[in-house]
Amino acid sequence: MSGDGYARAGVSQRAADAAVEALTRSLRAIDTGKPSRVVTLPGHYASVLRIDDRTGLALSTDTVGTKMVVAERLGRYHTIGIDCVAMNVNDVICVGAEPIAMLDFILTERADPAICAQLGEGLARGAELAGIEIPGGEIAQLGDIVTGHELGGTCVGLVALDSIVTGAAVEPGDPVIGLPSSGLHSNGYTLARKVLADVPLDDERLGRPIGEVLLEPTAIYVRAVLELLRSPIEVRGLAHITGDGLNNLLRLDAEVGYEIDDPLPVPRVFDLIRELGGITDAEMHEVFNLGCGFCCVVSGGDEREALELLRRHHPGAKRIGRATDRAGNVVRRSV
What we know:
Layout lengths: L4 H4 L4 H15 L10 E2 L7 E4 L4 E9 L3 H8 L5 H13 L5 E11 L4 H18 L2 E9 L7 E12 L14 E6 L8 H7 L14 H6 L6 H8 L5 E6 L16 E4 L7 H10 L3 H7 L4 E7 L4 H11 L4 E7 L5 E3 L3
């Protein structure tokens, strides 16, 4: 499987980008007959609406994607809810907001009380880790359309309008601090499952069953980032590293590029996927987080204090690179 492995596995990022543009063309034409509450944040991780002159409501929605297929194969759903919470709250904190609540959405062929109980177990644990509430949700039984299950959610948070983190303040030379991922998180599973299709889920070449490695819950970065935001440290940019890998840094609103010269260690599962699939370095960087789940860009003078604070929550945090004056470019060391 070569550089177009993700497309061959059934996911075309170009088609997805074109579909999003087609959808948003219509959404941009919405006319409510009153002034818009939308705070313009091009390409950012969460949307923000003005509640009043001081407060913004941050919103994000996401699913666990085809990681659910692994859960179904193993018949184990009790951690997948953590992934659902993580994928949403990790986006909301990128704008500097404090996540406060999430609604879950279960799409299923047929509602199964035992499975829903396990999904609820993970959602509750994820909510506790993120410090949010889940006051409600929805279960849709659509046996004529879907097989199996999918789990998604919509998260809301609060942010002071004058404290929104857009990335516009990032300057060349600013350090980029990477927070370790726990593994694949919830991205790239279509490619990973295709590559690992012939590997039994109880194979222990990685030191424990591959099925367990693939189901490792997505890390939740809320408590670390909120403490960072509430400190005297100047936080200039926040990036959730999901699909597109470290290219997600380019979603920050600054005319800069990034050089990643000291990346975080790459978990062995990524090496296995690359080797068995013959995946190029370029595509690995485009599809997976490769060990870095979140990035914080701070001012140069705050690097030491930021590292000390973040390592209390995520001991493997370290400076992985810096912002450059090469706008739009992410240069990184090969995996």
